[in-house]
Amino acid sequence: MNQSVTSLVSKDDIAAFQRDGAICLRGAFKDWIEPIAEGIARNQREPGPYATNVVATGEPGGFFDDYCNWERIPEFAAVVRESPAAGIAAAVMQSPSAQFFHDHVLVKEPGTQKPTPWHQDIPYYFLDGEQTVSLWIPVDPVREATLRLIAGSHQWPQWVLPLRWKDDGNFYEDVSRYRPVPNPDIEPDMSVLEWEMEPGDAVLFDFRTVHGARGNLSTSRRRVLSLRWLGEDVRYAERPGKTSPPYPYHGMQPGQRLRPDWFPQIWPET
């Protein structure tokens, strides 16, 4: 790790990430709050083809969800390429490099009752590997609507059934390979990690870590940019249906590294 990354992520942080599948880094992006907030505002003004409101018609609040826009939103491109994100990702993944997968904007408006269901990210993706990390970065103070994660679930031998967020239906037709969606609030032997957060803090979690979030019943917005990173061991893998994001016409075959012209290596600089 170079000095700038060493000051943000410690050996204890790395050990906790490897053990629990999630950590919270305080103030790691305090110098990036304004550009991230500006990028989120631009994304909402100019939504991409995958943008959706997860809240159904007639339900209170709003939940803006969009991804794969970083190359057309200059504020996001700057965060990806110039912030400490890539170096931090490589450090906690214990990977000699960090390849960028995609951005994800999640905005829960005040009074939104809709929770984010418990899920893992990796069943939705066309990849396999143990060196993965998402950086979940709020630009608003977050209390009850913070991210919640099941400690150690990145080591579960069977993945959790992926659902469609809007209607909670099954994401794939074939559900035989998945375990039921857990409810750690009532199931024993599950430890939930959650942190109250300030703007510029970041929760880092493995793509395999089970996570969710409550609705936003506060009087303030909850705006988040999530950055998804890949390490050296990640390879393309097929899924039993259309993935999210879909990335049509990618041309990759099982076992290949993800194509670097679509998913660039940011750390170290090439």
Automatic annotation (TrEMBL):
Assigned keywords, A-Z: Dioxygenase, Oxidoreductase
Ribonucleoprotein is among the record's keywords: no
PANTHER family, per the entry: PHYTANOYL-COA DIOXYGENASE, PHYTANOYL-COA DIOXYGENASE DOMAIN CONTAINING 1
Transmembrane regions listed in the UniProt entry: none
Keyword Oxidoreductase in record: yes
Superkingdom per UniProt: Bacteria
Cross-referenced Gene3D superfamilies: q2cbj1_9rhob like domain
Protein name as catalogued: Phytanoyl-CoA dioxygenase family protein
Native species: Serratia marcescens
